[in-house]
């Protein structure tokens, strides 16, 4: 396991560190490059930190920022507090990119798959970000960024298990934002539509509606810089989901979406 202590890199720290949870994902890696480019020290959290070795070397050489990695199994709820304690310092920004699309038809027949989808997309991230938010509130500063999904805007037959988990996560982030707005802590909700990642590999995605990981990372960085609360990626998804939400239930039941 790579030592997470940024001070041991010998590089000068000028900004508060950014913790990326789910750093091995395509979006996580893109975020590391964007925030590293902007001069932020990076803490990369993943279940298999040994796979981050080349990422750490590249980010350090390319951007000259301190980079540390720490092991995290986000589904281990009992270990989340110890994980945060081991960081040594509370990051200025925490971005949670954890997600699991799962297979809807299989999950409909298996409570084990259903449970995994719900815990990965909602329960575990909410528990961890909730504890991080408590610590940021005590400090009086910080930014929490959660990656939700447009799938949570209305339950659809094709992915209602994933969508319901993301709906819960969206509501959690909304409530957290409302609670912490008077305590110096910013909470952002990111709602991507289709993204060209390993998670969507094999799916036929419409190019006009499909974002690339680098595009998502840039949008998140700019949204944070401008103090945004809720961001749809791509922006056209805001209109699409508004239309879907407005479809009367009597008609919606007849649609195959």
Please write the CATH class name.
Answer: Alpha Beta
What is the strand arrangement across the widest sheet? 3-2-1-4-5-6-9
Largest sheet: 7 strands, parallel
Say how many strands there are.
9
CATH superfamily annotation:
NAD(P)-binding Rossmann-like Domain
What is the CATH fold-level name? Rossmann fold
SS class: alpha/beta
How many domains is the backbone divided into?
1
Using only CA atoms, what is the Rg? Answer: 18 Å
Shape: globular
Summarize the entry for a quick read.
By secondary structure, the protein is an alpha/beta fold. The chain is 44% helix and 16% strand.
Walk me through this protein's architecture.
- It is a single chain.
- The chain has 257 residues and is an alpha/beta fold.
- The chain has a single domain (14-252), classed as NAD(P)-binding Rossmann-like Domain (Rossmann fold).
- The protein contains 9 helices and 9 strands.
- The chain has helices spanning 26-37, 53-63, 80-86, 104-108, 111-139, 160-180, 213-225, 236-246, 249-252; strands at residues 18-21, 42-46, 67-71, 93-96, 142-147, 185-192, 194-195, 210-211, 230-233.
- A 7-stranded parallel beta sheet has the order 3-2-1-4-5-6-9, sandwiched between helices. Strands 7-8 form a two-stranded parallel sheet.
- It starts with 17 loop residues before the first strand and ends in a 5-residue tail after the last helix.
- Mean pLDDT is 92; it is low at 1-13.
